[in-house]
Amino acid sequence: MTALTLTIDGELLAVPPGTTLLQACRQEGVALPTLCHLDGLQPVGACRLCLVEVEGAGRLMAACLGLVAEGMVVRTDTPQLRAFRRLTVEMLFAEGNHVCAVCVANGACELQDVAVAVGMDHVDLTYQWPQRPVDASHPRFAIDHNRCILCTRCVRACDELERAHVWDVAWRGSHCRIIAGLDQPWGSVEACTSCGQCVDACPTGALFDKQETCGERQPRPQRARLHRGGLP
Amino acid sequence: MTRTITIDPVTRIEGHARITLQLDGRGHLADARFQVLEVRGFEQFCVGRPFTEMAGLTSRICGICPVSHQLAAARAGDKLLAVQPPEAAQLLRRLLNLAQILQSHALSFFYLSSPDWLLGWSSDPARRNIFGLMAADPELARGGIGLRQFGQQVIERLGGRRIHQAWAVPGGVRTPLAPETRDWILAQLPQARATMARVLDGYKRLLDGPLRHEQRSFGSFASLFMALVGPDGCWETLDGALRLVDSRAQVVASALSADDYDRFLGEVLEDWSVLKFPYYRPLGYPKGLYRVGPLARLNVCTAIGTPWADAELADFRGRGGTPASGGRIVTAAFAYHQARLVEIVACLEGIEALLQDPRILDRRVRAHASLNALEAVGVGEAPRGTLFHHYRVDDNGLLTAVNLIIATGQNNLAMNRTVAQIARACLPWPLPASAAIPEALLNRVEAGIRCYDPCLSCSTHAAGAMPLHIELRDASGALLCETVRD
Amino acid sequence: MAQIRCCTASGCRAAGGDALQQALQQARGHQGLSPAALSIKAVGCLRLCGRGPLVALDPADGGCQKLYGAVPPASALALVQLTLAPHAPGAAAALAAHAVDGDHPFFALQQPVVLEGLGRVDPESIDDALAHGAYSQLQRCRAEARPEQVRACIRRSGLRGRGGAGYPTGLKWDTVALQPPGPRLVVCNADEGDPGAFMDRAVLEGDPHRLLEGLAIAAFAVGAELGYVYLRAEYPLAIARLRRALRQLRQRGLLQGLDLQLRVGAGAYVCGEETALLASIAGGRGTPRQRPPYPAQQGLFGRPTLINNVETLAAVPAILRRGADWYAALGTGRSRGTKVFSLSGALPHTGLVEVPMGTSLRTVVETMGGASGVKAVQTGGPAGGCIPSALLDTPIAYETLAELGSMLGSGGMVVLPEGLPMPQLARYFMGFCAAESCGKCVPCRAGTVQLAQLLDRFCAGRGSAGDLQQLEQLGRMVQATSLCGLGQGAPNPVFSTLRHFRHEYEAACGGAPR
Questions:
Q1: List of domains in chain A
Q2: Which class would CATH give C423-507?
């Protein structure tokens, strides 16, 4: 099979056809922040953190979805992109109730990591302080909507990996919420196999094991291994 | 003409409060109030959260006694899970609590209170703090700082961080004790003991001399005292049952379970303070005034159970024990300070004993279970007194009601009484209509409050930095005279 | 034969059209006339929606038609009399207050192409539609033309997508047709949702067979055997009429192997975005996805899919009938043919106009619409912008309006009066976008909320220079990073009003810094 060549931040590299820009960036060692992306799940390009500039393209491109084309010239770290990423993370912090101090995921949170990575040390935007519920009706797990960033990794993990499709998104705009079943208490959704893959997939502390208390969550790779019985 | 003298804010306590002295038309004291002005909203915002979060959440209430809240929350959690934590976990929680009491008492004694008598009641308020103490008596200051640091280091090595940790969880603790940590703590103890020996020696000399007046007059009145005691009536900080004694050393009630607290404790809300007023229900309000904290624990217990602490307890009772109680009960609020030193000794000895128990190294430290009860009360002795966490949860473990009874609240009635008493004893009555109030006198009124080391459920640290605002107001509330101290 | 045509579109219905139609039938009975002697015909939109209910009288003598608006049922008898006897003096006098001047530029300057059947055809009768020539071009294509000839005709006509983006229709058809062999689909986007836009509704309610013919021709041209019309649930009358039209079409066997289906949306504005629309048809949540791949390559059920909006497809039969050159002769520059606008806002003549591209905004708004004291004209819906009155001589075209920071859009044209604070207008549209955001991508979901709150400060006169800076910075970010057109276009009303009315924002900066 032929290889495609492209330039990422001035470095030339060759990748096989079908490679996404994100894969190419990672191959090149370029650390693009992501939140909605999870290897093994269909990319959706929702968080807009992996946007890159592609020369000649009219618009910014989500690297998780964009396929490499021959001769592409890609920039991942321009002042504009840095400013946009920071604003995006600020928006996430401003729209939910992200109280790291008492969160199960404190220290093992991808949102925290991304905030550090993009240098978001304070939030200029207006905090929304929405009133959001906690659904703890499942015997083992719970979902705290305050911490949900609507990345839909749980939705896709449940649908694509477990094939149960317990989760989906309901409502619109800032009222969007992850729902179980047809907006039933999670514990009453018979389709749920309690496999825990949604919890593994969650980048924040929105989905958690009820045994976990503040800051007790393991970082994701370790967590995933735990649930898969130690297999890599 | 009626006047009001306001001391606002009260400094070197944890939080924001104000002292108001209400004068009658002849310039005599009509009423004294210790007003707490911050709303404790957290009982409300905990509602809807999972109970498992409470240990971490309530430990964020305040940077001074996070461990106490954490332990009370974890113990309430034990009951909601209907489990008994493994033995090692129980020992480790006890160790954590002793370290907490130690560091908090060191903070109260050295940082917040000792500047008053070591630097002098009339000294410059800008220097009447730990920094002033540092300049005046560097050895004592360093020793005090070292003691507090030791307590905090124990907490940190057990739970991963000094403050706001969430190591104690429903069912036990998160991590077992590493032998290296045990050895490290044991290695620090001799120096801490040496510091305490020096401090006790020095403080007793003060009590024999310059502080003799305060020791007698500060908040000395008959009251009930409440604390946890062990099965043998010994000093206890975590388990055991509640006991109340009166000023005549009579046991008023014993073997009380915290689960039934609302049967014997009532709470009243006054419109002039946001701090609730708990009282002993059988005696009614406000007659059911009781005190908690170091003074209460030493009055309630029969003995501490470790040799040095018991010797210091004897000295304590020998100095302050009232004749009416056969020398058994100390009623002066100023004795809280000495009681703290006695308890630091008890903590040092207790920590040593716990670490010498091989069971404390057991790796099984957490019992796992799902929700098995819908209501629970967790209790523990916080540095300032008995702390209750009362939770109700729904079928999914989300909190539907939270009631926290904190030590400072339980001392609320006593603090008001103390302020009145000191004001009566120290200020020149009748108060001249437009006279400035001498600094030393105002400071003593404040110091009366500080005996109780009030923690107003807030992480504001105000080591002498907050302004003191005193107002004189007539009956209509019009401002007559005002003193502001920066 | 004498005939009274009653507008039965939503606007006139809301104004009491049903009652008027019943009163007319009663009046006819009173006069002892049979339906054969006087036909009372339900038709689609008669254009001047603001004067509903509208009726058009076609006198028995073949004399020129008369139009009456805002007619109460009590005037039914006079209408019947006047139709039968065009010079009946009493009746004419009784109706004088309701007479509409049919020679007014509002009507005279219209060039009906898409709307040519509106107000003439009975939307519920396929026979009437057939009598007006419906499906003749479809049958001609099938009988005489190859698909590539049809596509070439559309390409030559210069027709561009009327949904707003203005993508050349022929090129799109070619792209779909030239995909590798395999099933392909056609979809009509009838999810008209811009505030102030009701052109497509008029076509759907007034001449559904024209749309279905266009869709069937498109299916023929790209080789599709399955087509969908995606129609918003808020148009119940359009749904009923389209459903009836489809049933009639199937019964007559005119589809010939083509399967056309109706899908009703659930009320999400974002489903007008083509990828969201396809997701909704497929049974999923209506959320957009990143393009490429474009639906022409990979659309509904993963197959090459042609998506055109109602007005685009409804123009097709006329183009085929009258020829690409005739159509291309209308218009200006790269914008050919005619465009339908729904005129609303602060002007006397509100309703539908269809004019050749290149007509100036002033002609539409002032000459036809009769507006005066115009502050600005809002075009393009929530992703569009405002064109100040000083620039109204601009000829209407995709490029010219975009250059002014607005867009042609789907055809909503809202006339804004003097005195309307522009931050308030921007706030309205931002609120619309925030409420209609699907919530998938962060900048649109959360950024529009932040922008709306910033605009609130300007509306209340509490803005600051810092707010203004943040407004522009945040707007640029939402524009550049949003996943689909809804978010990308959401800041446009802000930028457009800032461009032409920046002083209003600056004047709202008097407040204390926040």
A1: 4-77 (3.10.20.740), 86-227 (3.30.70.20)
A2: mainly alpha
- The answer to whether the CB of A35 falls within 8 A of the CB of A74 is no
Identify the CATH class of C126-327: alpha beta
Domain-wise residue ranges, chain C: 2-101, 126-327, 334-417, 423-507
ipTM comes to 0.94
Please list the pLDDT of chain C residue by residue as tens digits (514 residues). Answer: 789 999 999 999 999 999 999 999 999 999 899 998 899 999 999 999 999 899 999 987 777 789 999 999 999 999 999 998 878 788 888 899 999 999 999 999 999 999 999 999 999 999 999 999 999 999 999 999 999 999 999 999 999 999 988 999 999 999 999 999 999 999 999 999 999 999 999 999 999 999 999 999 999 999 999 999 999 999 999 999 999 999 999 999 999 999 999 999 988 999 999 999 999 999 999 999 998 899 999 999 999 999 999 999 999 999 999 999 999 999 999 999 999 999 999 999 999 999 999 999 999 999 999 999 999 999 999 999 999 999 999 999 999 999 999 999 999 999 999 999 999 999 999 999 999 999 999 999 999 999 999 999 999 999 999 999 999 999 999 999 999 999 999 999 999 999 999 999 999 997 544 4
Answer for the pair B303, B235: CB distance below 8 angstroms, yes or no: yes
The domain defined by C2-101 carries CATH number 3.30.1370.10: no
* Residue C433, H or E segment: helix C422-436
Nearest CB to B50; choose among A134, A187, A216: A134
What domains can be seen in chain B, in order of their start residue? 3-39+428-485 (no CATH), 84-219+332-365 (1.10.645.10)
pTM of the model: 0.89
Please say whether the beta carbons of B104 and B408 come within 8 A: no
Set of chain C residues whose Cβ sits within 8 Å of the Cβ of A95 = 445-446, 449
Q: What DSSP letter does each residue of C43-65 carry, written as one string?
A: ES--S-GGGPSPEEEE-TT----
What letters, b where the CB count within 10 A reaches 16 and e where it falls short, cover B312-336? bbeebbebbbbeebeebbbbbbbbb
Amino acid occupying residue C445: R
Interface test with A, best of B51, B396, B398, B399 (most A CBs within 10 A): B396
CB contact under 8 A, A213 and B52: yes
